Structures
1.
Amino acid sequence: LFFKLPSDCFKYVSWCDIEEHGVQGNLLHCPRVREGPSEEELFFRGEEHTLKKIKQATDTEKWQKKLQENWEDCAELNLSFQDLGDLYQVEKFKRILQRLIRVEKLWLVDNSLTDLSAIRLPRCRELNVNKNHFTSFKQLPRIPQIQHLSLAENNIMTLSGISDFRHTPLESLILKRNPCEFQERYRQLVFSSLPNLKMLDGIPKLPEDCSPPNIRFFFKMCAIL
């Protein structure tokens, strides 16, 4: 297209940059929080016509924007599919996560995340980080109140570090489609590390899951996933 569409000026604009509205962050369930491409990137894409003229923000306007982004008040938030293509977008994303001090349910699906170990989510009870690039439990955020954790489709190789969740109220864990799922006596090892766990990969704790992991025994029962 060689002509400017009416909506082009909003293509890379976050909701808090749109004028004359009072919508705050805790009112949005699936906000887009990543910043748009830089001016240089837009030029190389041939999309310089979409660039919004940015004026120098006053201190009052900066404060009003901060009030709109009241992430501290969010109890339930979906920040999935943010398309974090640049480092500066990832850094802004992490700064928002650091402000989620009251969030209880958080979805971060498919964001190409690799390390959130510096993030603390003190009230989070349910966390979904499916389809990211985590390779270890050590790279997860600190979640002392976690009850339901979903890590499907990451790249977690071993169960090393899983015992860090031993003293949390974790009841349900999903590790489907991670390499560690193919480890010998996988279910026994997980349940022995997490005594409070009630469900693994959608399957409740079975009697044979309670057997000591160092005992080799073949059961006639199989679980069909």
Note: The helical segments are 39-45, 59-68, 87-98, 186-193.
2.
Amino acid sequence: MATKIDKEACREAYNLVRDDATEVNWVTFKYNGSTIVPGDQGVDYETFKRKCTDDVRLFGFVRFTTGDAMSKRVKFALITWIGEDVSGLQRAKTGTDKTLVKEVVQNFAKEFVISDHIELDEDYIKNELKKAGGANYDAQTE
């Protein structure tokens, strides 16, 4: 059965993270049968990481504040999490299902496909976003 996405509900969750007036810093998009729907949402990145267990696959849209002494910027990451215990067929299907998520989640600085908890490290993600972010004035302070 082909995967579908609840675009309207997912767009609402996506917009919560993008809205500067909310405290929501992340949302997940999960599978409900063969439909991708909004999952959890929250403020703390550590809570998001706990949703990424070995037996699930999910998509996360996460807000990070990056930058340096001269400039702070908000950057968004699209994280595809595929747990270690997810079957080969589901792993393969996640790649094609991601195109459905990208119909909703269109603005992000960097995309990650992760199945190792070490790569979920907040500093690692922020560093990768910083590299993708253009101007870096840190060198002037060293």
Note: The chain has a mean pLDDT of 91.
